[in-house]
Backbone:
DNA sequence: AATGAATGAGGCTTCATTCAT
DNA sequence: GATGAATGAAGCCTCATTCAT
């Protein structure tokens, strides 16, 4: 027998992503995914129950991947602000370098495909960041404000910045990034 | 298309809105719009060339309406910060009170329906706000930073705050709103 | 507008029947029904919710039609046995002349398509025959036996006779029909 | 195909039977048969050329089994009517006790799966019964009528009785069975 | 022989758009 | 202008069969 190829699942997800980038979520067809992944349509249904299931897995897969990117060069031995700044820049860099991915996650989030339970599960991935914010508050370096407010502030502004600049075909120079970070820090500092 | 009956056009747009709010953009069908608007499908095609055309009109219609909400109680005779704060609260209130609308605009924005020219046209609606930010800079009250950055910062954070709280079924108390505004003001102040 | 053509429903049903006769229930495809009925597939779905619905209507339609055939030349002014014999011959004639139809109804009956409620409804159509049997019992002309037993006896034997002869490509001569009726009458007579 | 493991063939047929009883012929899938038989799909194709082949074997297997049931307690040393009655009761008991089996054979019979040659072969199994009828005629105990007519009469009525009572969830009491046999005997007796 | 992943033709159904009335 | 029945392209998914292991 041909044993169920574990990596085929990832092949399918990557193929799907490429297609969504190229043609949008609305134009996504199972038959094209199969073509892009060089396999038969039926094979997709061996690894995913249906289109909805595939997209839910895709969502989770990329949310996890993005969290990995965010955690780069974060070292809890370092002072809070150093880590905060690193995290912020990681996030911005990710959002800038993968503009379609952010858009995709957003699109999926509000599509009829995504199951609430999957959304809830991705939310848990943010826990390390919540912990970090708590630590900042303990050290009285940042405002003692509701975590959800802080998170919304951080993610909302970063995403929107990356998006607007991408839409207008503008580059985000290091200087602009620095200015943006300063605004963020001024916003959250105690 | 484009008949004398100007009001029917608006009826269709309103009916479409209600449907999108109730069932989402993805499930939107011309036949249902017709039903909701109490007319025949064919009639829709007298007033709008096709579904795409209808949704582009809807987007514009809607963006204009939201700008009207934002401008409430703004009076250029007042000091900058008063107006800035009022604008910020107007925006947040609008985003909180109409959580589906923000989502709708987002969904539409990234759907294959929306024509770039329409997106560009709605962007012009922000000009008064850009002017206001310029005035703030002239008075050296806010940072002398790129307007797109400032706008992204403002809209991104506000939308995200409204959205997260709506998703988690949490109320945004006046205290939290005040804290959020303080963060924003700290971020932009000179 | 083109007003919903009442007779189109019957056109579809007749087209479906012809197809089932030609290619069997198992090979029945909606696209072929449309072709046979000279209309677009979509049109089928205006008149019937789906394939199952179409087949349920078909079942009812033909059960009713067959009952009409059975009732021919039945006149309650005539003596019981005359009517009984006429009914029996009508039934046999119908089963012989429409061998596919009997088979179809049987096939449908045991297919996953047929809804129990529709089966129940067709059963009600037999009431006039039950009444007739009761009258025969009242006149002490036939055995005072359970109606279901009598009905099963009558319909089962007639259908099977028509079927076997049709399968073996044999004609049912008037003599054989007379013999068969005699057997039936001997079976039920008091 | 046709391997040494004769028993596996029977395992597959039994598994198929159970599935058809439980879920009907229309929903029968090769993958489910494999699951029910605790083997891989591929294995089915070692023992049977394809689905059609499997179902033809099943039909034959089954017809033979039912004939065995019918022959129980038949002893040619006994008088004709005793055997006839025994046969009739055997048949009815079988049809009543295995209501799905009769239906299955019927369904299969009119499915596109069954090959005519197999149907013809099963018909040969009826020869002992035909012989018995001939003997009855020779002894002038039953009508001198066409055997096909007699067979159709017998099988059609019995099957239909069993079916109707099963559908209506009614029990066939010994009294009713006796009445039914009396009708049959009156029908065929000379 | 046994396995079960892979294949892909083909079925049912939806829905934007057209057009006869 | 208004209507809504008619159209048919196109998408999702199933499942009998194959074949590499």
Residues:
């Amino acid at each position: 027998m041909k044993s169920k190829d574990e990596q085929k699942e990832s092949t399918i997800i990557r193929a799907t992503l490429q297609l969504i980038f190229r043609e949008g979520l609305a134009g996504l067809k199972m038959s094209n995914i199969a073509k892009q992944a060089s396999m038969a349509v039926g094979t997709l249904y061996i690894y995913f129950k249906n289109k909805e299931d595939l997209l839910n897995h895709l969502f989770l897969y990329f949310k996890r991947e993005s969290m990995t990117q965010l955690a780069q060069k974060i070292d809890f031995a370092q002072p809070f602000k150093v880590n905060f700044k690193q995290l912020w820049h990681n996030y911005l860099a990710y959002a800038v370098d993968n503009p379609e991915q952010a858009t995709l996650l957003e699109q999926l989030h509000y599509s009829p495909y995504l199951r609430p339970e999957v959304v809830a599960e991705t939310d848990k991935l943010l826990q390390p960041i919540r912990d970090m914010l708590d630590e900042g508050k303990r050290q009285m370096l940042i405002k003692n404000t509701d975590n959800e407010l802080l998170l919304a502030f951080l993610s909302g502004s970063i995403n929107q910045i990356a998006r607007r600049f991408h839409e207008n075909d503008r580059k985000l120079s290091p200087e602009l990034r620095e200015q943006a970070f300063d605004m963020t820090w001024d916003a959250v500092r105690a």
